[in-house]
């Protein structure tokens, strides 16, 4: 049972309070209503009905701030995500979420303020000086940055909702920017061969293996001699070693699943040379001059003065290329060789064939042309085309 009473503020203004008992029997109240009807409606919805339906939320619980709940959410994510992903979440929390929402009670977060915050990160912030000149206070950020920051806040509020601190999550359902997929760069087999011939010999092996097999960089560098089956032309991928804060950290693969992939026969001499006279536990690829050390070649390779960019110029290949683009090249060469979607999915380590089709939809455009021709030939054999032609002539 809830009671609505009137009271006077220190300024002499009339306000209404709702006195009620919580499910545990303790008494509390909610103040500040300007109209009696508002107090009565709040009491009916948030107290009487909520207690009857078992959805009652203690207003005191909603006073916990985003800053107080954030560390617990991050600790939970640290248990369930890879170190590389956790680092991006922690960075988004420190840079975007904590400064803006750290002192805000979760019950005070609204859809409107969340939308304004997201829009501000996406579009940046500017002001005009006395002369009307625009001064940039904050640069516009990419969709990836915005989505990651929003995801951290929304995740914290999801937990607050589950813990019955708030009735709903105001961060869900707002308008968010869309990620624009970067156009893939595909090398032809001839270009890949030229690029491999334009870099140092030990990097040549890296270029050819990545460009023909399609594994991720983090899957390549921790490979051991024992992961190569020279007779079946297979490579076993069970570990990934991404760079986290400048440190290589071996971990599970991106999909948490091990897989065996093929390598084409043309790589057989390279694989046999890399495995020759070596122990099963030795790294397949090592940092030159540092035995037993994984290669650190990721970010700097694609800089204008990086070895990959220099190799492209020497090979006379226009445009910009990253190490990850060699994975796209492998996908395109597999499709051109006639591989079906499931084979490409398994080789690349995608979660599903649908994901492969989504990422590389442009590679399968030729399939539609071929399908059109084959259906035309089938319909011609069945004389369906002539029948439709007669129907059209009669209609005319």
Structural notes for this entry:
The chain has 396 residues and is mostly helical. The protein has three domains: 2-56; 65-162, DNA polymerase, domain 1, CATH 1.10.150; 189-359, Intergrase catalytic core (hpI Integrase, Chain A, Orthogonal Bundle). 46% of the residues lie in helices and 11% in strands. It has helices at residues 36-53, 66-80, 83-101, 111-123, 143-162, 189-196, 201-213, 217-220, 268-275, 307-315, 325-336, 341-348, 353-359, 365-381, 384-395; strands at residues 2-8, 14-21, 27-33, 125-128, 134-138, 228-229, 234-237, 243-244, 247-248, 259-262. A hairpin with a 2-residue loop joins strand 8 (243-244) and strand 9. The longest helix has 20 residues, at 143-162. The mean pLDDT is 84.
Please supply descriptive tags for the structure shown above.
three-stranded antiparallel beta sheet; DNA_brk_join_enz; mainly alpha; hpI Integrase, Chain A; 396 residues; 3 domains; 15 helices; DNA polymerase, domain 1; DNA-binding; Phage integrase family protein; 46% helix
């Amino acid at each position: 049972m809830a009671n609505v009473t009137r009271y006077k503020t220190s300024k002499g203004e009339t306000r209404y309070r709702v006195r009620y008992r919580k499910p545990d029997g303790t008494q509390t109240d909610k103040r500040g209503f300007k109209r009696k009807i508002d107090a009565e409606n709040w009491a009916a919805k948030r107290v009487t009905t909520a207690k009857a339906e078992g959805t009652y939320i203690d207003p005191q619980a909603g006073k916990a701030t985003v800053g107080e709940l954030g560390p617990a959410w991050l600790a939970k994510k640290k248990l369930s995500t890879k170190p590389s992903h956790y680092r991006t979440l922690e960075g988004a929390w420190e840079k975007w979420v904590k400064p803006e929402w750290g002192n805000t009670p979760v019950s005070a977060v609204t859809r409107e303020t969340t939308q304004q915050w997201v829009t501000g990160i996406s579009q940046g912030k500017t002001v005009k000086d006395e002369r009307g000149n625009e001064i940039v206070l904050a640069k516009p950020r990419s969709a990836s940055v915005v989505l990651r920051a929003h995801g951290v806040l929304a995740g914290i509020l999801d937990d607050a909702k589950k813990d019955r601190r708030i009735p709903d999550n105001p961060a869900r359902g707002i308008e968010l920017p869309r990620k624009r997929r970067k156009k893939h760069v595909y090398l032809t087999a001839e270009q890949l061969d030229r690029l491999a011939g334009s870099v140092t010999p030990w990097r040549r092996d890296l270029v050819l293996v990545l460009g023909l097999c399609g594994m991720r960089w983090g899957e390549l560098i921790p490979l051991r001699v024992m992961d190569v089956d020279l007779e079946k032309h297979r490579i076993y991928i069970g570990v990934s070693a991404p760079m986290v804060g400048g440190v290589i950290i071996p971990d599970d693969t991106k999909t948490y699943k091990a897989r065996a992939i093929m390598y084409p026969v043309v790589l057989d001499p390279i694989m046999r040379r890399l495995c020759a006279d070596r122990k099963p536990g030795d790294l397949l690829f090592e940092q030159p001059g540092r035995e037993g050390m994984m290669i650190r070649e990721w970010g700097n390779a694609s800089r204008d003065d990086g070895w990959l960019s220099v190799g492209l110029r020497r090979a006379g290949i226009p445009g910009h290329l990253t190490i990850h683009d060699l994975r796209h090249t492998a996908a395109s060469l597999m499709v051109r060789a006639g591989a079906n979607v499931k084979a490409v999915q398994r080789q690349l380590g995608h979660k599903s064939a649908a994901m492969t089709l989504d990422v590389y939809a442009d590679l399968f455009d030729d399939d539609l042309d071929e399908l059109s021709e084959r259906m035309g030939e089938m319909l011609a054999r069945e004389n369906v085309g002539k029948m439709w032609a007669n129907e059209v002539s009669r209609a005319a």
